[in-house]
Amino acid sequence: MAVTLPESVLAQYERFSLYNSPYPAHDGGCAIDLYPGTLVDGRTTAAPSPVAGTVRETRTVRAPPKPYAPEHDHLILLEPAEGSPLAGLTVRVLHVEPSIEAGETVERGESLGRLVRAGFFAPWVDNHLHVGVRAPEQNPYRASGSLPIELGVSVRPLAWDGTGRVVSTGDTYAVLDAPRHPDPGAGFVGVRADGGGVLDGGLPHYDGGGVLERDDDTDPVVSLNGDRLGVADGRTITWDDVTVTANGEPITGLSLFCARDGDFGAKLICPDRSFAVGERVRVRVRSSDRD
């Protein structure tokens, strides 16, 4: 059984990803990270609810220990309203310090609280809501076990030749000006794989990724600009043993996701390297057995 998140849910957020995570809860696209677009001091703090419904429960949960983040997070369980496409299911939300309590009703888009950065976050990951959906007979507290998520929106694949200029940087990342969103706000886009489909995931710093909007009869070998990335089983990719390079030198990887905002561009994960704004960069993916 899979559940579809309709456009009315996804259009509330600037970005989303099914696969850009190291955690098993995302295996097979069984969870989605939703990135709101309101920034305060460079970080998103608003936490719009993905659905209308009733708060079933809130609780504090442990997070992996990280020196830069608290060791606790928060779980919110929502029961979608009657008439909702998700009615009868349980929606579980992480990474929000709740401002609501059990028994309260919320509208779609109403704030659930304040987004928080717990030990689940790598330093380069932006604030987001982690969302999964469970059937009534499923344990809502286990980290894994949510239903596969299908997208009720189309994602436009954007060709990218692997080049661009740096437009912004952080301590662990750099963002390029390409590929550009052709019509910001009008729909979601992502980096196109050779042969079609949109790439999603952390390449290769997380174990695998996904390829969305791809024909079922397409060659399972997935590549980008002629560089082989891995093999797809359905929409899920197992990455090959590869290294991402920027101007010929290794970096940690590429962060691949779907976005509808005008700041969309390739995101380089590079905690051990620095890039200057305006610097021209060429990205390639090299197999470990390549001479």
From TrEMBL:
Chain ranges of the DUF8155 domain: 4-150, 156-286
The UniProt entry, under Pfam families, shows: DUF8155 (PF26482), DUF8155_C (PF26483)
In terms of superkingdom, the source organism counts as Archaea
* InterPro entries cross-referenced by the UniProt entry: DUF8155_C, DUF8155_N, Dup_hybrid_motif
Which residue ranges does UniProt annotate as crossing the membrane?
none
The name this protein carries in UniProt is: Peptidase family M23
The organism is Haloarchaeobius amylolyticus
